[in-house]
Task: inverse folding
């Protein structure tokens, strides 16, 4: 009888564990944005594509992805740019893809960033800045990304850094993180940005850094598959409720991953 009761108890414990594990199992969620569905604005000196609602482009289904609020793909003509304008309580990351951009702000930040470099600006309690094509003849193509901050009204801050192309060949190169003691630029949010430049046929996993985060995948060049979803140049895919994702380069490709809090 004792053996029988022990067996029943063991079965009950196993059943409870199975139910508990099932409850913990995540069901991956996704949102897919084709490149040609982005908002578009052409002003002569500026040719801009907006993944999320921005300026005159508004889509109630595309306001943000978690803490990721803006993902703009801008081409600015030579000698042109954005005059001084205000920002506050936003982490702004700028990634030139070709050309060079000159930045000035009223916190004393000033510099020229070019392809291979990354700039971060914590707008914090408020900052005025301008961004102008550093060349009078050549256009600049840049990604400008806004992320909601973890803490509001912090001291405004500006930084930039050059990252080697070799550091992202067939692997993930972290360019932005919330830690101050890494090679990446740090920001006021639990977000990690990574660049990867992959040869055709290569498969690479990305393991999320923090529970509750999601990842927005943006294809800069080439064609890839992410957890089975095919993506082409300038397509975007948001994924969440997962621990890792797997990217396969269907052709030579360059990809930006933006891991951000979903709440």
Result:
């Amino acid at each position: 009888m004792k053996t029988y009761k022990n067996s029943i108890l063991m079965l009950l414990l196993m059943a409870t564990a199975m139910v508990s594990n099932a409850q913990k199992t995540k069901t991956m969620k996704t949102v897919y944005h084709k490149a040609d569905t982005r908002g578009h604005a052409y002003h002569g000196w500026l040719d801009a594509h907006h993944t999320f609602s921005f300026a005159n482009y508004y889509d109630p289904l595309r306001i943000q992805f978690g803490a990721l609020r803006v993902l703009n793909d801008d081409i600015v003509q030579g000698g042109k740019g954005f005059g001084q304008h205000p920002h506050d309580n936003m982490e702004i990351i700028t990634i030139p893809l070709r050309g060079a951009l000159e930045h000035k702000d009223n916190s004393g930040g000033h510099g020229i960033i070019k392809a291979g470099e990354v700039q971060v600006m914590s707008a914090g309690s408020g900052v005025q800045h301008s961004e102008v094509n550093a060349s009078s003849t050549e256009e600049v193509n840049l990604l400008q990304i806004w992320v909601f901050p973890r803490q509001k009204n912090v001291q405004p801050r500006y930084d930039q850094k050059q990252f080697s192309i070799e550091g992202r060949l067939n692997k993930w190169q972290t360019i932005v993180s919330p830690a101050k003691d890494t090679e990446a630029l740090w920001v006021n949010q639990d977000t990690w940005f990574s660049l990867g430049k992959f040869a055709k046929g290569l498969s690479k996993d990305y393991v999320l850094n923090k529970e509750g985060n999601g990842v927005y995948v943006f294809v800069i060049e080439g064609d890839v598959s992410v957890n089975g979803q095919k993506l082409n140049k300038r397509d975007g895919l948001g994924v969440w409720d997962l621990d890792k994702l797997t990217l396969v380069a269907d052709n030579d490709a360059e990809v930006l991953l933006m891991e951000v809090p979903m709440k």
Q: What stands out?
A: Residues 15-24 have pLDDT under 50 and may be disordered. The first helix runs from residue 2 to 24.
